[in-house]
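Hello, quick one for you while I still have it in my head. My current little project is about how a certain protein chain folds up. You're getting the sequence in one-letter code plus the fold written as tokens. Would you mind checking whether the tokens look sensible for this chain? Here's the protein in full, and shout if anything looks odd to you:
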Amino acid sequence: MRSTLTKSVIGALAAVLLTAGVASAADVLEAKVPFPFVVSGRSFPAGQYTIERADSNSSVFVIRGANGTAPVAAFVATRPADHHAPASDMPALQFKKSANEYKLSAVWESANEGMDVMN
């Protein structure tokens, strides 16, 4: 069971490709998520998303669908991650699979800066 869960999390993490861009005051993560997912009780379809902090010192992230992807936006409350970073030094979104859905579980801005999503 634990092995299956680990494979699901790793598979979900590996499937999300992120690139870092720069906005005027904050870093913006762009992600193409190839599967539907849930965050803060809202369902998001597979698609292109941008993720950024609500402000430069905030633990709240804003996730927005790009190119008309609905829903338009959601605020995501986070806290510092209490586990190890993904294998890559690149920014990453981490998902956990439960039942038949993926839930956003963490946002990693770098190998040293990770925030767990509070549900």
Q: What stands out?
A: The longest helix spans residues 2-15. Residues 74 and 111 are 24 Å apart (CA to CA).
